[in-house]
Amino acid sequence: xxxxxxxxxxxxxxxxxxxxxxxxxxxxxxxxxxxxxxxxxxxxxxxxxxxxxxxxxxxxxxxxxxxxxxxxxxxxxxxxxxxxxxxxxxxxxxxxxx
Length: 98
Fold this sequence. Notes:
Blueprint lengths: L1 H28 L2 H9 L1 H15 L11 H30 L1
Helix pairs in contact: 1-2, 1-4, 2-4, 3-4
């Protein structure tokens, strides 16, 4: 059960941070698409920074990255589309209520 919460907690936190940024940008600009793109860029941005830091800190005796780099190249656009879609749908539903 603890493993479940240790995985689920950070995911919920990142999702809430994504939605919070999207909400703030939507309040500032009034455009749903701009807010969805801003909110959807948080998680891929964190993953990209994590990959760059990991590559920068590699030592000579570390194993080569192998399939991790293509995984980042595939995973970052997928995460961006999922996050942007979630932000767009949430903002769209919330703006219909007002």
